DNA sequence: ACGTTTTGGGAAAACGTTAGCACACTTGTT
DNA sequence: AACAAGTGTGCTAACGTTTTCCCAAAACGT
């Protein structure tokens, strides 16, 4: 392995000068620069990141903590985060927490020891206090998908409420007379917001009744069950707003089994905009531009790391109605 | 930040002794141990991984290089790899290469500078020479999904050929009289092997003809197009073996559009066994136990890192027929 | 001609570990 | 009694950087 010392020797300068040049800090003469660059090229010198980290206190590594990369929402987020991180010279460490607080603590502990430069975190279970504590240890954090109002925590979320309203309005405009909602876990912020949007929009309607909402747990199987349940009580339902795309797919499966035609007899719309081209008819959805979300969040994280001034507050991304074949 | 020096002072021993105890190397008396452990606990000391890496030449970090985490095959692999890595005290770095040789080189360069302990790689483009070169730089490698016969490269793959045969046999036993194949890119080893299995099994059949094979590029859209193409030439096809689940889903979509009933009129089977519960009817498939694959590969990687004796050769995992609703 | 900046560069102290070496004290063996 | 092996411990040199300090020369203003 060739070190900075080798370069300095070959170039006939001190290691300090080489370091200064490579880090653009301090003054270096043109001659020295030329000699050093030549030496670097000749020796194919690459600075050792570890040593650099130890001396400089920055690792050029950031972590992405997600509940479960198997949930199709997260690969897209990860992809965006990784692209952006790589583009800015950062390395991305992946952590699956399963929303298990113990695992989360373990990972956080480990990441601190690794002197990770920042963490992008999506978690239903982590407390604002924990995040603030991390920040006080001067570890920048960006929270995904859940705002922490009242705390100095930077978060990037989608406009869940507006998206939900968009979905309902779309169903109504498409002629739906009775709309059901399949909701996710209420302790999950986005699920809660979307459910609230449904209630806000529909509570005043003559057909509205609480039993039009069923719990789908954000999963395909849950959406399937919820749809069956809803249909058992309300055969006349003609519109379904599912809190995410997975549940919408499950609902679609159920509807199909029930022999109802989509979108003639019943319309259905999901939320998220994950890639789901394997499902047919293709699901209408409210897209939250997951890639942009991940990219933006990583951008903010890195800007925090670089101490660029940033308001520590929630950044809400626009959502887009994406009507396809189920409405 | 509390350092090993703080601990040694509080415990009244030298740093060397603390290090020895914490690394279980060399002798440490019972009294010293007690004193040190007390100090560690009191100061809440956690060794600094960076310093440890610099001194010890190991980072406890491994990388997973995949073409694209968006392809549903890879999150499952990543999940398994990460689980196993975390369980063994390793951190997982994620790299998306898009099968772009330049990106691959960039990442490899970066990973070397980070002194990554090992790399688990799935790539269609990397050459065995590159891998061997890395190994000669004493970076352990495990290749996924593609064996490198004739090179001292450890790889973990699925029994693609056997799986393909299993799929065909299953279709035949289910009564299929004319089976088509939708294949992936021929330079992708697994796609090639599966296509070969189809040919091996079917070339002798009276109905066999090359136009029963269409190219689906391993994607949903590709599978869809391929199916349409096949049907245009062979309305009497009653069985389809798709080279992966995504193409199978695409084909299913096409079949649905063509108004054929599955599995009565035409049966279809995929390959991979990715989680696809959003598709209905649920796809029959040949499962390659992706989780096991990832876990096994990571296990081998770490065993290589620990210099545990391992044959550098291909490890082929069994596949399983998973008949569901499309056959 | 004389301060004061600006420019350029070297020596050496961190950064927090690990590991090789040396030394000392117990045991056990002949 | 002498010697080897085993046990316990501390010093200190790495590991490869960055980052103070500090010094010297050149450029500049008066």
UniProtKB/TrEMBL annotation, chains A, B:
UniProt KW ATP-binding keyword: no
Keywords: DNA-binding, Repressor, Transcription, Transcription regulation
Species per Swiss-Prot/TrEMBL record: Paenibacillus oryzae
Molecular-function GO terms, alphabetical: DNA-binding transcription factor activity; transcription cis-regulatory region binding
Origin superkingdom: Bacteria
InterPro entries registered for this protein in UniProt: HTH_LacI, LacI/GalR-like_sensor, Lambda_DNA-bd_dom_sf, Peripla_BP_I
Signal peptide span: none
PANTHER family: LACI-RELATED TRANSCRIPTIONAL REPRESSOR (PTHR30146), RIBOSE OPERON REPRESSOR (PTHR30146:SF95)
HTH lacI-type domain ranges (all copies): 2-56
Coiled coil stretches, renumbered: none
Protein name: HTH lacI-type domain-containing protein
